[in-house]
Amino acid sequence: MKKDKNILCIGAGYVGGPTMAVIASKCPDYKVTVADIDEKRINAWNSDKLPIYEPGLSELVRNVRGKRLFFTTDIAKGIKDAGIIFVSVNTPTKTFGEGAGKAADLQYWEKTARAIVEHAEDNKIVIEKSTLPLRAAEAMHRILHSNTKGLDFDVISNPEFMAEGTAIDDMQNPDRVLIGGMETASGRKAVERIVEIYAHWVPRERILSTNVWSSELSKLVANAMLAQRISSINSISALCEKTDANINEVAKAVGMDSRIGPKFLKASVGFGGSCFKKDILNLVYLCEYYGLPEVAAYWEEVVKINDFQERRFVKNIVKNMFNTVAGKKIAVFGFAFKADTGDTRESPAIYVSRMLLDEKAELAICDPEALDNAKRDLADDKGKFEFVNDPYKCARNSHAVLILTEWSEFRKLDYRKIYASMEKPAFIFDGRNLLDHKELFKIGFNVFPIGSTKFTHLK
Ligand code: NAD
Ligand code: UDX
């Protein structure tokens, strides 16, 4: 197979695995290899139990794996063989040195650039799939051109907009695909090559070409603006709880304004996930770096409101359970940062659980897909907590049930049975406004939704 039909993706995570499975399934004329340094992860991609849970992913992988889609740890060979290299490694928030707590940690990303320089034997197109700060492509370009082999590389920015839980559908039917390239003859040609790949299944009018910096910045801004909507509605949920207004009614009324729109206005215990907080803080850092403190402060507030919402949720629990949860069993329904994923990165459940453990509550945690990750997240935490597969067992003898992830399974449970097995008075704190609160109240629960009046039998 010709090298320009040979794609390598470095980084076999939540983005690399699913995006490449979709490309392989849609582009029969390409061979796609996904490489990672993590041998365990690659073995899992080659097995029946994939390393991540995502609806529709296993079927997709099963159809193309071994035919047009391959998973390997042999990064050097992958680089040699491919003409097109996607880089999809993690870019977490820096925890050390200059910019710690805000800037992106680019060490994994830079290592891939250096690996490409070391192993490449001919010219290649290198595509930033990871979310990166503005001007990262320029830095990548410099590292790649430090090679002494006379090789030439085109660097393209092609950020990923998929959301977990709907990743496959998002990739198969994207709102848009963004491809940013350098404004040179060779840069434009490289953009066209990547456009050609996506045009296998994405209508041309939805494939947007921009300059490389607009592409990099658009990704950060899209995430910041989505998170901003959640923080906006969550801030108003606090006001609703004080005033008898109902956040669901407010969100509906506001969202019916076609200029605002109804999506991403669901009040919750807070947003989680590996992207929102990291990408906003990255934006904040960039604004500070470029001497725009007012703009930085504006965006940082989105993260602060999210922290406030998580803290407020826990304070509400403690206050309403007679100012103490010490020694009380509390059932945590849901640990994933949203439904339909096993991912728990930055999940509000982590912070809520930690605050409750500090209050000496005894936690029982259930989740249909995220318990392995939950165990890792709480591995170093002190206090009493257990992981339980069965929600009925989880709730038995507890004083309160907390809904922290909006799994549809939790809506279908028999809450009469749960109520009967709990200590009394029994509480439900619905951090996702998932359940029928009036019905729960009728059963006997004291119910605390987000952003609307509580239903309580307590005098
Ligand atoms: P991830 O942590 O799930 O996967 C990253 C993978 O890269 C890991 O398996 C890691 O072992 C591998 N890796 C790190 N250094 C490597 C190296 N030098 N060589 C080979 N492999 C290496 O991360 P993710 O969630 O897939 O995110 C990847 C990027 O995509 C990030 O920049 C993220 O911001 C962005 N992104 C993520 C999402 C999402 O929903 N997860 C959505 C859009 C964009
Ligand atoms: C996000 C972006 O949506 C996606 O475009 C980008 O590529 C990666 O980051 P993701 O984090 O996977 O995707 O999930 P998303 O659906 O955005 O949800 C993020 C968090 O916000 C979750 O914790 C979710 O429960 C919460 N959320 C979302 C709300 O609390 N209310 C809403 O109305 C929407």
Question: Could you explain the architecture of this structure?
Answer:
This protein is α/β, with parallel strands linked by helices and 459 residues long. It folds into two domains: 3-202, Rossmann fold, CATH 3.40.50; 210-459, Rossmann fold. Helices cover 43% and strands 14% of the residues. It has 18 helices and 14 strands. The strands form three sheets. It has a six-stranded parallel β-sheet, with helices on both faces. Helix 18 (437-443) links the parallel strand 13 and strand 14. Helix 1 (16-26) packs across helix 3 (57-64), helix 4 crosses helix 5 and helix 9 runs parallel beside helix 12 (293-320). The longest helix is centred in the middle third of the chain and has 32 residues, at 212-243. Bound molecules: nicotinamide-adenine-dinucleotide and uridine-5'-diphosphate-xylopyranose.
Which bin fits the share of residues in helices? 40-55%
Number of domains: 2
Unreliable segments of 5+ consecutive residues: none
Oligomer: single chain
Ligands, deduplicated: nicotinamide-adenine-dinucleotide, uridine-5'-diphosphate-xylopyranose
For the largest beta-sheet, the strand count, sense and barrel status come to: 6 strands, parallel
Classification by helices and strands: alpha/beta
Which helices and strands occur, and which strands form pairs?
Layout: E1 6-10, H1 16-26, E2 31-35, H2 39-45, H3 57-64, E3 69-72, H4 75-81, E4 84-87, H5 107-119, E5 124-128, H6 136-144, E6 153-157, H7 167-172, E7 177-181, H8 185-198, E8 207-211, H9 212-243, H10 247-255, H11 276-289, H12 293-320, E9 329-333, H13 348-358, E10 362-366, H14 371-377, E11 385-387, H15 391-395, E12 400-403, H16 408-411, H17 415-421, E13 427-430, H18 437-443, E14 446-448
Parallel strand pairs: 1-2, 1-4, 2-3, 4-5, 5-6, 7-8, 9-10, 9-12, 10-11, 12-13, 13-14
The chain binds nicotinamide-adenine-dinucleotide (NAD) and uridine-5'-diphosphate-xylopyranose (UDX).
Residues 10-16, 36-38, 41, 75, 88-91, 108, 111-112, 130-131, 160, 162, 164, 274-275 line the site of nicotinamide-adenine-dinucleotide.
